[in-house]
Specification:
It contains 13 helices and 147 strands. The two termini are about 65 Å apart. The N terminus and C terminus are likely disordered. It is a single-pass membrane protein. InterPro entries: Big_2 (IPR003343), Ig_NUP210_4th (IPR056897), Ig_NUP210_6th (IPR056898), Ig_NUP210_9th (IPR056899), Invasin/intimin_cell_adhesion (IPR008964), NUP210-like (IPR045197), NUP210_Ig1 (IPR055096), NUP210_Ig15 (IPR055094).
Length: about 1900
């Protein structure tokens, strides 16, 4: 909860720190929720009904609380019976008449937000009456008066609800004394139609008055209403008074302000409201008078005159002069004259300004011919205010008699009724010509004001057609029809009376057809909406359609419009109504023959004058068909059909126009097309051929064979006489009933018979269609080429004297000859083959063909043809003029070819490509497959084709030989292309100083390259971004590219692009090729020495950056092997060469390109000996020096043997431990490295003395070949001398000396800089003072000379004191260096680290020492660092000089070597081991595993760090303790962070649980015995246990309280016996837990409280229990494993008491399964009882009976304590007891009878079961079924009755019937029977 006084900043901080899902609730609570009032003031009262107040919140549910219950109580109000309260009632409970206060707090139950209300209780000091008005009207609505109470400070009380007041009418001192109740009356709310508050209704029922009342006016006058508080306590509070005036509700007509002209008058009327109706009042008035007051004159008026005069008798006001005055009501009663509510009116006397017109109806000046209109002329003053027009005003109104007829007009001319006569535009005029006689004036006042108005008159609006009828379509297809409008202005608004039936657009387009019905479409004139026209629209059902008469046959290509009429037929009157438009209905056009007619233009349908739709069908093929037109998708199938025929156009095929034949030759004339015989009347078909001269020709009709066309008509015409005539062919059908207007067609041709005049022989050219013929015959050349490879056909044509070619000359005799038979000859020179051919004129003629045989030889031959005469017996006249011979000279040539056949041409106007044509006739047709791509110029003289490109594209150049036999054109494939792409091909990584080839290609479309001869047109050039490389054009060039030589000059990167410009000036740039010039690629080290099994990684420098993958190979893999990372492992002694290449694969060629390569010499040796490398053997005390193991040679460094497999171990020892300490590396950070990593140590000198250091190197296996001679160990030792450092003074004041290496510098600083003037100088007194230089400012520089100098530093203080200090500076060479690590690592007590934690950040610091171990203060050494592998550490220079930063990224040992580049012998080697610092191992983690993470890392104070997890939904982790639960499969990373020291991590891979493993203690089993111990079912989700790692108590607590891993597991049980109709969940309660002790999940199965019936059923149930579990996150994913749990039900007894007599025997019946019954123990507690052995029931399975009797009845009766029979079972741990009591003596006789009855009952029982057996034998089917069920279901049918005594469970031997006679069957039996007979219901 937020405190009320909290600062705003804190509130906002809390607001934004809320969880997102609470933010909305917080906003509601703080910004939206509030109480209806913040403060409440309640009146003090001693009456029983205290004053309540309703406090209400806006939203939410609240708990209300009052801080001062004695003063204020609060009662919540609940909504609709719920526990949610938004309102509460405040009641003042104060009993003291003093001011008390309380705070009401309302707390919201969800957000806990509190609302506050301050409540005060005080005494009423005074009261007053509040009213919205002080004036009432007679018979008007009543007025509400309210009491407002104030305290002594003037504060208003919040409510007075419930307080009793006395209202009364008091005497008005100002008015005359009358009866008090005559003016006003106090009303109850029940008497008025008002809705008062509920408390007022209750008070009025009790005849009390509250703080609110109603008063009503009775008659005019004044009245006083008084109120006081009824409660006696407030009798001293003064009453409140209010004075009310009651007025009459009168009106002045007109009530608005009036404007008059001078001399005009107006007569007023007065009306009043009586009982809701307005009634006019006659003058004079009873209570009022009218007066003109406040006369205000305008400038220039006469003050002696009034503005207007009033006639009081008639209420007429006459305007006198300009100005204004008020007409007011004055009350005759003097006391009422102060009333302000009486009506009044202001009268303005003005001058006229202008006139205006108004017209009715419509109010628009757009009129209609024949209509009557009212035109009103209005007068306005200069302020545009309308002036009242009196009768004495004169207005002249003028209009055209041609356009208007005046029907009525007023005397003053302001009102006219006219009728419009004709259409047109006319102007009306009005003029104010008033002559008003002013009073006391002799001159009349005249006005001349005019106005005119333009009027447009139109004809009445008429819509065409008179009505519209549309068919209704059930699919909602709408009809659209444009209504035509006549009359009106032409601009209309359209509307529909029923838009569901018909809608209309703004253009008058009616849409209807979706809904049946009718509607009226109305068109209103926009200029005058009162003018309109309408049309009725009907949407009706379509019943009938028909096709109207039309022409039935038509020529192909022509169109027939088929008109369609559709109707709605009234079912009663049979009247047919034709639809106006049905063109939008979808029509289905079906033909019995497809393809004869088709729908034209996708079915154009349009209505006409006699039809509502039409179908246009086009004749497409000859034939006839029955066309059926129907409406698709309609409710009733409407259709109509008709037959149509189509025929081809009639034409003369041969001849087309003229036929020319020789004498006695025949012309076959062919006509085609024309009408077919009409299918319905074929007998009326006719055809005829008529001629002019029948004797000159003989005509015979040729009957065509079946294979010829049916519509062709052939006639053979034989020439009998020379001459010319016209033949006419007609075809068609005669008119008939079924075809009244059939089509008839005719065509005419000319027939000529003549002598031949000339002949022509030409080779026959089979030119392709569409090409021109051979031009040789036109040129009349002497030599005509023909093919020397193929036989040629020579054609003979014959012409008459007019040059016309003959159609047939077969009657002539001819002879053929060849001049050179070796070149060509004729096989039959006498005959000629007549071939019919169309020679291009469209007419077929017969030509003479002769085959010329060739012998594939070139040459020239002359061919001749001789004419011998006619083949007839006699010849006609004039034959002597005929030709005798014709000849032609031929040249034999080969076919033409095009060179080149393929080419890609650059699209540039300067490009001209030449294609040569070789051989052929020389007469060619050049064709292109595409136009406008190139400009083709055929150069006939050169026999070539020139192509100039115009547009890009692909084309085929076809060359046709026009004068050779056609086999096909010679072709060339040509591609014209713009520049599409520039391609640069080069190796983009070049080693400095090397050269590579650069190939430039320009590609066109489809990646085809251009020839380089076009490059000059393209302006191809190369451009470099920088000059780190050079380019040189090569002399040797490829045809399709330009080649350059690129030479690398400087290391760096640049970009090379190729640039070209096309014909439009657009630049094309190739993809930039980034060229990297890299330094020479080098592998490090140049030579590598390894022992067998040792691994070291090859490093590299130089080469392309970022470096590509280096491909390693080794020359001898028996010596060493290398992997892809460059890690070399020694195999056996020997040498090998390792090659490393940087290469890539060219994407275009697929070739491997090698950028650079280098090699390393590999030597694998055996360690012959080891030696300890110590840089110095004489050291001062208190210094450190690294020592490490080396081989015999300097190349056998720790890199050579520190990473062998198996590892070598290094054991160090000393002869004297008090002289120095020998510690492993990284001991400064508390790391304890194992012996395998101790190849390097650190010597810490302690005291002066001499000691020996020894190292022993051991190999675990002599067969590994690591040591020479298969030795197992090698050793070495050295001596170290430690001496005391020279000291001049005692140790507490030892002066310091500056130690500098040679060629270094050091900047000195003092503590007085800035405060004093500090200077320094090198003293010259020392002989070697030249070893350093000093600039005077504290900068020391050492040279290349070793020695010692003295430095003097002087400080001149501002206060007059000089300080001087002298120190020594020694310059010496660096002897050795040492690597130390940082930061320090701390572990828990008793724990050590053997490696750096994974993920840790390390800092390595390099320190330098001289030959005796003194540390240098400055450095100038150039260091080189090397690693034996780079995959475990990320290492690099630190942020300070001579420091290195490293990150441990992988497990393993890395050997770090550091040495001086100028002095490689000065080196140090350290092992850096990295291991996991977080336990346990997380390799095999499954969903559900609980992991207790731990680490031995702590901070310097021994405190652990903080745990973090990368993904909490995979491994839910408690960050405080470091325990996690694997909830989902995936990968997560666990972090342990010790701030400022170390941050380590471990990756956790969570696998999906393959299967849940279930188990339980085999010694346990399930039972349903009450209070039985819980059964435990153990579940494991992984392979073993689910608990990983060892858990601390805090982690175990977090598992139990925070992580709750058991929520992952769901446990289930089920009885194995499926026939047992009891769910296991009714018997057992099951839930899951996680056991930290066992590390597995546990399902706890406990027994629920069971009913007796359930225990009874289960007691004999032979069943087990299936148990299984599922993971919540992986439900249904894996196979479910179930385990069978043994179940032993508890036995059941229905008896708790025996009442036995002297000779009675009780039967103790126990139900249970067999093994339970066998383990029962039954014993009695009294010696007077006897329990006989049990016996099994033969009829009922699972029932055992024990007999109980009393041995000594008398002694048993005298027992003071009750006797028991105890029944127990060891299997189920169940114990039951039955009380045995003795029967009293009073029931002896009855008991004897009962004993007899008992015997009878026993016999009856036997009879009952005997009867049951008999019935069973008669009902074999039932018993068989029942036996089958009993066999399957092991639950027995047991009748265990309940006793009939008053004590349930007791057994009375004499007074109870036997148990097996109980009338109520048990639950299982009834359930079994119901199940048995209700199998399928």
């Amino acid at each position: 909860m937020i405190a009320f006084g909290a600062p705003r900043r804190r509130s906002f901080g809390l607001l934004f720190s809320l969880a997102p899902h609470l933010f909305f609730l917080f906003l509601i609570g703080t910004l939206a929720n509030k109480l209806n009032v913040p403060q409440v003031l309640l009146p003090f009262s001693r009456e029983p009904g205290r004053v309540p107040f309703l406090l209400e919140a806006q939203r939410g549910c609240y708990i209300w609380h009052s801080t001062h219950h004695d003063a204020v109580t609060i009662q919540p109000l609940y909504e609709n019976g719920t526990s949610c309260s938004q309102r509460a009632v405040l009641v003042a409970e104060s009993t003291q008449p003093i001011r008390l206060s309380s705070i009401i707090l309302a707390r919201e139950v969800v957000t806990d937000h509190e609302l506050r209300c301050d409540v005060k209780v005080d005494v009423i000091d005074n009261i007053e009456i509040v009213s919205r008005t002080r004036e009432l009207y007679v018979d008007d609505a009543p007025l509400e008066l309210m009491v407002r109470a104030l305290d002594s400070k003037g504060n208003t009380f919040s409510t007075l609800a419930g307080m009793v007041f006395e209202w009364s009418i008091a005497q008005d001192n100002e008015s005359s004394r009358e009866e008090l109740s005559s003016k006003i009356r106090i009303l109850k709310y029940s008497e008025a139609e008002y809705s008062p508050p509920d408390y007022i209704i209750e008070m009025e029922k009790q005849e009390r008055q509250g703080d609110v009342i109603l008063v009503s006016g009775m008659r005019t006058g004044a009245a006083v209403v008084k109120v006081r508080i009824y409660e006696p306590f407030y009798k001293k509070v003064a009453a409140a008074l209010i004075r009310l005036l009651v007025l009459e509700n009168i009106f002045l007509i007109p009530s608005h302000d009036t404007y008059l002209l001078v001399g005009a008058y107006i007569k007023y009327r007065v009306a009043k409201m009586v009982q809701g109706r307005m009634t006019e009042v006659n003058f004079p008035l009873e209570h009022y008078t009218l007066e003109l007051q406040d006369h205000r004159l305008t400038n220039g008026g006469l003050p002696s005159k009034s503005v207007a005069l009033l006639d009081e008798k008639t209420a007429m006001v006459t305007a006198v002069q300009l100005g204004q005055t008020n007409l007011v009501f004055v009350h005759k009663n003097v006391h009422m004259r102060s009333v302000s509510g009486l009506p009044n009116s202001t009268i303005y006397v003005v001058e006229p300004g202008f006139l205006g017109f108004s017209i009715h109806p419509g109010g628009r000046w757009s009129l209609e011919v024949g209509q009557v209109y009212v035109i009103t002329v209005e007068v306005f003053d200069k302020s545009s205010t309308r002036v009242y027009i009196s009768d004495n005003l004169k207005i002249t109104f003028q209009f055209s008699k041609e356009y208007f007829e005046e029907q009525l007009s007023t005397s003053n001319g302001s009102y006219h009724v006219v009728k419009a006569l004709k259409d047109g535009v006319v102007v009306i005029n009005a003029t104010l010509t008033s002559s008003l006689q002013e009073r006391n004036s002799s001159q009349p006042k005249t006005y001349q004001i005019s106005h005119q108005q333009e009027v447009k008159i139109y004809f009445p609006i008429q819509l065409k057609p008179s009505f519209l009828a549309f068919p209704h379509h059930p699919l909602g297809i709408s009809n659209r029809f444009t209504v035509q409008v006549e009359g009106g202005s032409g601009n209309f608004t359209w509307s529909s009376s029923n838009e569901t039936v018909a809608m209309v657009t703004t253009k008058g387009v009616v849409t209807a057809g979706q809904v049946r019905g009718n509607s009226t479409i109305l068109a209103r004139d926009v200029q005058n909406p009162s003018r309109s026209g309408d049309i009725k629209v009907y949407v009706m059902k379509l019943n009938k359609m028909e096709l109207l008469p039309f022409q039935a046959d038509v020529e192909i290509g022509q169109i027939i419009e088929v008109p369609i009429a559709m109707y709605h037929v009234n079912t009663e009157t049979k009247e047919a109504i034709a639809f106006t438009d049905c063109s939008h209905l979808p029509l289905d056009l079906n033909s019995d023959k497809q393809g004869v007619f088709t729908l034209f233009k996708e079915g154009i349908q349009k209505p006409g004058a006699m039809h509502c739709s039409s179908v246009h069908i086009a004749a497409t093929s000859p034939g006839h068909t029955l066309v059926t037109v129907s409406v698709t998708g309609h409710e009733e199938h409407a259709w109509s059909s008709a037959t149509f025929a189509a025929y081809e156009p009639l034409k003369a095929l041969n001849p087309v126009d003229v036929a020319l034949v020789t004498w006695q030759s025949v012309k076959e004339m062919v006509f085609e097309g024309g009408p077919h015989p009409w299918i319905l009347e074929p007998s009326r078909f006719f055809l005829e051929l008529s001629m002019e001269k029948a004797e000159a020709i003989r005509v015979a009709e040729v009957r065509l064979p079946a294979k010829r066309k049916q519509n062709q008509y052939v006639y053979r015409v034989l020439c009998l006489e020379l001459g010319e005539q016209v033949l006419t062919f007609r075809i068609g059908n005669h008119p008939g009933v079924l075809n009244p207007s059939p089509s008839v067609e005719k065509v005419q041709v000319r027939f000529i018979c003549a002598h031949p005049a000339s002949m022509l022989v030409t080779p026959m050219y089979k030119a392709p269609s569409g090409t021109q013929p051979c031009p040789l015959p036109q040129y009349n050349k002497q030599l005509i080429p023909v093919s020397s490879l193929r036989d040629s056909v020579l054609e003979l044509a014959v012409f008459d004297q007019h040059g016309r070619k003959f159609d047939n000359f077969s009657s002539l005799m001819l002879e053929w000859k060849s001049s050179n038979e070796t070149l060509a000859h004729f096989e039959d020179s006498k005959s000629v083959e007549m071939v019919a051919r169309d020679d291009g004129s469209g007419q077929t003629r017969l030509h003479g063909h002769q085959i010329l045989k060739v012998h594939q030889m070139k040459g020239t031959v002359l061919i001749g043809v001789n004419f011998a005469g006619y083949s007839g017996k006699k010849s006609p006249k004039g034959i002597s003029n005929s030709p005798r011979s014709a000849g032609v000279e031929l040249i034999l040539v080969e076919d033409v070819t095009v060179q080149p056949e393929n080419a890609t041409i650059y699209n540039h106007p300067d490009v001209k490509e030449i294609f040569n044509l070789v051989e052929g006739s020389g007469y060619f047709l050049i064709n292109s497959s595409e136009q406008d791509i190139v400009t083709i110029t055929y150069r006939e003289a050169e026999s070539s084709v020139q192509l100039v490109p115009a547009h890009p594209g692909f084309l085929t150049l076809e060359v046709y030989d026009l004068c050779l036999a056609y086999l096909g054109p010679a072709v060339a494939q040509i591609r014209v292309s713009d520049i599409q792409e520039l391609e640069l091909d080069l190796i983009d990584k070049v080693e400095i100083g090397k050269t590579v080839l650069v190939v430039v290609r320009v590609l066109g479309s489809s990646k085809h390259p251009f020839r380089n001869k076009y490059f000059r047109n393209m302006e191809v050039r190369l451009q470099l971004a920088s000059a780190i490389v050079t380019l040189r054009l090569m002399e040797d060039q490829d045809e399709y590219s330009e080649n350059y030589m690129l030479r690398a000059v400087t290391v760096g990167q640049t970009t090379l692009v190729a640039i070209a410009t096309d014909r439009m000036g657009k630049k094309f740039t190739s993809a930039p090729r980034h060229i990297e010039v890299f330094p020479p690629f080098r592998l490090i080290p140049e030579k590598m020495t390894l022992i067998a099994t040792n691994m070291m990684q090859i490093m590299s420098e130089g080469g392309p950056q970022p470096q590509s993958i280096i491909h390693f190979s080794i020359s001898n893999q028996t010596v060493a092997v290398v992997n892809r990372r460059g890690q070399v492992t020694g195999k056996s002694v020997g040498t090998a060469v390792l090659h490393g290449t940087i290469q890539t694969v060219n994407e275009d060629t697929g070739k491997v390109i090698v950028f650079s390569q280098d090699e390393v010499q590999i030597e694998v040796v055996q360690l012959q000996a080891v030696r300890i490398l110590a840089a110095a053997t004489r050291l001062v005390t208190a210094t450190e020096m690294p020592v490490y193991v080396m081989g015999v040679t300097s190349t056998q460094t720790p890199f050579s043997f520190s990473n062998a497999s198996p590892l070598l171990t290094f054991h160090w020892s000393m002869s004297k431990r008090d002289v120095l300490d020998l510690v492993p590396r990284h001991s400064e950070v508390f790391l304890q490295l194992p012996a395998e990593n101790n190849f390097a140590m650190v010597v810490h000198t302690k005291a002066a003395g001499r000691t020996t250091i020894k190292v022993t190197v051991r190999s675990e296996n002599s067969s590994s070949g690591q040591l020479e001679g298969n030795l197992l160990e090698l050793s070495d030792e050295i001596q170290i001398l430690v001496f005391e450092k020279l000291q001049l003074f005692y140790a507490n004041c030892q002066p310091e000396q500056i130690l500098m290496p040679m060629n270094s510098q050091l900047k000195l600083h003092t503590n007085r800089e800035g405060a004093a003037f500090v200077s320094s100088r090198v003293l010259k007194c020392f002989p070697n003072s030249s070893v350093i230089e000093e600039d005077g400012g504290g900068l020391l520089r050492s040279g290349s000379i070793a020695g010692t100098a003295v430095l003097e530093v002087t400080s001149i203080e501002p206060f007059g004191v000089n300080q001087t200090t002298i120190t020594g500076v020694q310059v010496a060479p660096v002897t050795y260096l040492r690597l130390s690590s940082y930061p320090k690592l701390y572990t828990a007590q008793g724990r050590t680290l053997s490696a750096f934690p994974l993920g840790m950040s390390l800092t390595f610091i390099v320190e330098f020492y001289n030959n005796i171990g003194e540390k240098f203060h400055t450095h100038n050494t150039r260091l080189y660092m090397a690693l034996n592998r780079d995959d475990l550490l990320l290492i690099g220079p630190g942020n300070r000089n001579y420091t290195y930063m490293a990150q441990a990224v992988n497990k393993g040992v890395t050997v770090v070597g550091l040495w001086d580049q100028r002095h490689p012998g000065m080196a140090d080697y350290i092992p850096v081991a990295v291991e996991h610092a977080i336990e346990p191992d997380t390799k095999l983690i499954f969903v559900g595993d609980v992991i207790c993470f731990s680490t031995q890392l702590v901070n310097q104070h021994g405190e652990p760090g903080v745990w973090m997890i990368s993904t909490n939904n995979i491994v839910q982790t408690d960050t405080a303790t470091g325990v996690g639960v694997a909830r989902n499969p995936g990968t997560a990373t666990i972090f342990h962070n010790i701030p400022g020291v170390v941050k380590t991590f471990r990756e956790v891979v969570v696998n999906a649980s393959s299967r849940l493993t279930l188990s339980y203690d085999l010694k346990t089993y399930l039972t349903n015995t009450p209070n039985a111990t819980a059964f435990k079912l153990f579940i494991s989700t992984g392979r073993n246990v689910n608990l990983k790692g060892s858990c601390t108590p805090s982690q175990a607590l977090a598992i139990e309280k925070v992580l709750l891993p058991e929520t992952l597991m769901l446990c289930h049980v089920q009885f194995s016996n499926t026939l047992l109709d009891i769910p296991a969940s009714k018997v057992f309660h099951i839930h899951s837990e996680f056991s930290v002790e066992k590390g597995v999940y546990v399902c706890l199965i406990k027994v629920r409280q069971e009913s007796k019936e359930l225990r009874q059923v289960l007691s004999v149930a032979d069943t087990s229990v299936y148990g299984w579990a599922t993971l919540v996150s992986e439900r249904g994913k894996n196979g479910m494993q179930r385990i069978l749990i043994p179940f032993i039900p508890g036995f059941y007894m229905n008896q708790s008491e025996f009442v036995l007599g002297h000779k009675d025997t009780g039967e103790l019946r126990i139900l249970g399964v067999e093994r339970v019954l066998e383990s029962l123990e039954v014993f009695h507690s009294s010696p007077f009882l006897a329990v006989s052995g049990y016996k099994h029931s033969m009829l009922t399975t699972g029932l055992t009976v024990y007999l109980v009797r009393i041995v000594n009845f008398t002694a048993f009766q005298q027992m003071s304590s009750p006797a028991f029979i105890n029944v127990s079972c060891a299997l189920t741990n169940q114990q039951e007891a039955v009380i045995v009591r003795a029967k009293d003596a009073s029931g002896a006789d009855h008991c004897e009878d009962s004993g007899v009855f008992k015997n009878f009952v026993g016999s009856y029982q036997i009879l009952l079961f005997t009867l049951f057996a008999v019935l069973a034998s008669t009902s074999f089917i039932f018993l068989a079924h029942n036996a089958f069920l009993n066999k399957v279901q092991t639950i027995p049918v047991v009748y265990v009755p309940t006793t009939g005594t008053t004590q349930p469970g007791s057994y009375t031997a004499t007074c109870s019937p036997p148990h097996f006679l109980s009338s109520r069957p048990p639950l299982v039996q009834s359930r079994l029977q119901h199940w048995l007979w209700s199998i399928k219901h």
